[in-house]
Amino acid sequence: MERYYLNTQPQPNGDREVHKESCRYAPGVSNRKDLGFHANCESAVDKAKQSYNQVNGCIHCSPRCHTS
Length: 68
Known about the structure:
- It is a single chain.
- The chain has one domain (2-65).
- A four-stranded mixed beta sheet has the order 3-1-2-4, with helices on one face.
- By secondary structure, it is mainly β.
- The chain is 12% helix and 31% strand.
- The protein has one helix at 41-48, and strands at 2-7, 16-20, 32-38, 55-57.
């Protein structure tokens, strides 16, 4: 299981991205929400969608969950 974070700063298209803790593109401490430990990115994205409607996986660390 890995720890996932949500970038609370939206991308230009409005998406907030979910990142693994190990991702080199993970947001800094001031722009992240801890989503906890998850077995996969789908679970982490589901958790993030409890707070935000427009959520996407990082293309680099969570490509299965990257939709746009």
